[in-house]
Amino acid sequence: MKTRKPKPTIYEQVHDNHAMVQRVEEGLPVMEVVKFGKQAGFTNEELAKLINVPARTYARRVADKTRLKVHEGERAVRLMRVFDYAKRLFVTDENTRGWFNANLIVLGGKTPLEYAQTEPGAREVEAVIERIEDGVVQ
Q: Shortest CA distance to 61 belongs to which of 80, 52, 49, 48?
């Protein structure tokens, strides 16, 4: 008898662009975003702000266990992707969150979380992480 493999979570697929296109177009289940938030240490209020959804709307979606709209899903995937990328360097969720909330000169005094609110900003945060890995930036 074959056992069925559970469908990977969004966070587990966040670097698979092909899978993410389909998941975002279908509408990301908000509960998977909540699961990521709990693991990473984000509150629902922080997640709502980070994916630019009014807190009450986000709370309603969580209560109803609905899906995010495409543009919200794109922002959620971006957050998860950059967080995961940083976590590979900083190892723990706590260390990663600490770095994400630090004001960095290289980002014009903004935090990586603030800077990663747009796709170009997220790409720059990823570039900073790469430079840290290479020993170029602190």
A: 48
Average pLDDT in the chain: 88
Rounded CA separation 79/46 (Å)? 12
Per-residue pLDDT tens for 38-91? 989 888 888 998 899 999 999 999 999 999 999 999 999 999 999 999 999 999
Angle value at C-alpha 26, between 51 and 65, nearest 5 degrees: 65
DSSP 78-112: HHHHHHHHHHHHH-SHHHHHHHHTS--GGGTT--H
Residue 63, SS3 per DSSP: helix
d(CA 44, CA 86): 21
Specify the 3-state DSSP secondary structure of 34: helix
Boundaries of every domain in the chain: 13-133
CB-based burial of residue 83 (10 Å sphere; 0-12 exposed, 13-18 middle, 19+ buried)?
buried
Quickly state the pLDDT bin for 125 (edges 50, 70, 90).
Answer: very high
CA 126 to chain centre: 12
Full-model pTM: 0.84
Instruction: Look up residue 58 and give its two tokens.
Output: 């986000």
